[in-house]
């Protein structure tokens, strides 16, 4: 069973088009990425500031996963 | 009009990156993911990174606790969250600046290989008082303290500080120094004062029959001053100096070359150096 962990996010951080939110596993000592980690149950709860005009039920434009090299 | 929405991601190897599409602005409220480290190359910190549209990392938030390789963690990232506080050990822990800390027994063991590095000073177990002119290290027991060193033995070193007492091994009962205590082990008891005195004192106080005994098994008791005399002195009246030989042995006095000058055998016969004469002039 996966242990529950929690930590903070920057509050009220407005991310415009082109910004990326990246989930990654880092080595605690070197900061390098650790390979072999699988991600699942990924869920974002966000405030869509622009939204679809006048329609609260319209879905947020789909965020698709993509590899980004930083 | 702003609205809160949930976006679900897929399943895949880390890292997973999500780009805010055109004509959209969002404020992340909560990010949740399960990090499965069953195939991880090592321990890791689950992390969310926010990367600008210019490719710069503007925020990197990791959990305080690392996930060991082989373990998994379900991680919630949200503003103002902190990691769960570590619980304070209620019993059994050792803490600085805390008195008393008592328990039934304490066992500490290390397994650092010889030359493995150990502490910053190279020891597997290192207890130090590094303060300048501090109070020192105290090891005390009501039933005695046992020091046992296999291989390099037990070393007790003292560097004299100005104003400090001359002695640094002091007990109210016995001091036993034994080399090679087990069958098949051999070793020497060496007591050396490189630039000072070796003093062995059994003061006794008001108690009678307190003595200094130097006992060997099959070896000799040797006293070798490099540049001094050997003085045997009876401390008080009515006490003399006794030298007793073993059965069949002799009492011998040699000159500086090791050649016998005077020898008394068990029959009571005196043997003196050839050509020498008894001289009565003291």
Provide a quick synopsis of the model:
With 70 residues, chain A is mostly beta strands.
Which tags fit this structure?
heterodimer; A: 70 residues; mainly beta; extended; disordered C terminus; B: 282 residues; three-stranded antiparallel β-sheet; two-stranded antiparallel sheet; 20% strand
Describe this structure in words.
- The complex is a heterodimer of chains A (70) and B (282).
- Chain A starts with a strand and ends with a strand.
- Chain A has strands spanning 3-7, 20-26, 38-48, 65-66.
- Chain A contains no helices and 4 strands.
- Chain B contains no helices and 10 strands.
- In chain B, strands 8-9-10 form a 3-stranded antiparallel sheet, with no helix packed on it.
- At the A-B interface, strand 1, strand 2, strand 3 and strand 4 of A face strand 1, strand 2, strand 3, strand 4 and strand 5 of B.
- Strand 3 of chain A pairs antiparallel with strand 4 of chain B.
Q: Largest chain interface and its two residue counts? A: A-B, 61 and 79 residues
H and E order of chain B: EEEEEEEEEE
Radius of gyration of chain B: 37 Å
Taken from the alpha-carbon principal axes, the silhouette of chain B is rod-shaped
SSE string of chain A: EEEE
Distance between the termini of chain A: 31 Å
Give the helix tally of chain B. 0
Largest sheet geometry of chain A: none
Strand % of chain A is 35-45%
Low-confidence stretches of chain A: 52-63, 65-70
Low-confidence stretches of chain B: none
How big is the Rg of chain A? 16 Å
Structural class of chain B: mainly beta
**How many strand segments of chain B?**
10
What topology does this entry show?
The complex is a heterodimer of chains A (70) and B (282).
Chain A: E1 3-7, E2 20-26, E3 38-48, E4 65-66
Chain B: E1 3-8, E2 12-13, E3 16-19, E4 26-36, E5 45-51, E6 57-62, E7 72-77, E8 250-254, E9 260-265, E10 270-272
Antiparallel strand pairs in B: 4-7, 5-6, 8-9, 9-10
């Amino acid at each position: 069973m996966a242990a529950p962990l929690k930590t903070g996010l920057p509050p009220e951080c407005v991310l415009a088009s082109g910004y990326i939110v990246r989930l990654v596993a880092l080595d605690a000592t070197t900061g390098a990425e650790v390979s072999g980690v699988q991600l699942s149950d990924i869920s974002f709860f966000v405030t869509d500031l622009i939204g679809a005009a006048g329609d609260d039920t319209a879905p947020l434009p789909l965020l698709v996963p993509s590899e980004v090299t930083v | 009009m702003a609205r809160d929405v949930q976006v679900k991601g897929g399943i895949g190897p880390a890292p997973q990156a999500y780009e805010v599409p055109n004509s959209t602005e969002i404020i992340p409220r909560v990010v949740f993911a399960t990090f499965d480290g069953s195939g991880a190359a090592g321990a890791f910190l689950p992390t969310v990174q926010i990367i600008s549209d210019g490719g710069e990392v503007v925020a990197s938030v990791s959990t305080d606790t690392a996930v060991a390789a082989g373990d998994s963690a379900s991680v919630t990232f949200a503003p103002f969250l902190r990691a769960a506080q570590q619980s304070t050990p209620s019993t059994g822990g050792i803490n600085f600046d805390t008195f008393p800390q008592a328990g039934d027994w304490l066992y500490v063991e290390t397994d650092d290989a010889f030359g493995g590095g150990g502490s910053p000073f190279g020891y597997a177990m290192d207890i130090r008082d590094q303060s300048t002119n501090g109070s020192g290290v105290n090891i005390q027991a009501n039933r005695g303290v046992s020091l046992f060193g296999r291989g390099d033995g037990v070393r007790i070193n003292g560097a004299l500080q100005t104003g400090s007492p001359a002695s640094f091994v002091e007990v109210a009962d016995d001091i036993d120094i034994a080399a090679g205590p087990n069958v098949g082990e051999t070793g020497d008891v060496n007591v050396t004062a490189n630039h000072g005195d070796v003093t062995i004192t059994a003061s006794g106080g008001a108690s009678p029959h307190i003595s200094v005994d130097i006992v060997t098994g099959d070896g000799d008791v040797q006293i070798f001053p490099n540049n001094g005399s050997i003085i045997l002195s009876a401390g008080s009246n009515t006490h003399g100096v006794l030298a007793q030989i073993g059965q069949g042995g002799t009492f011998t006095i040699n000159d500086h070359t090791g050649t016998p000058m005077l020898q008394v055998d068990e029959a009571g016969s005196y043997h003196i150096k050839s050509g020498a004469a008894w001289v009565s002039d003291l």
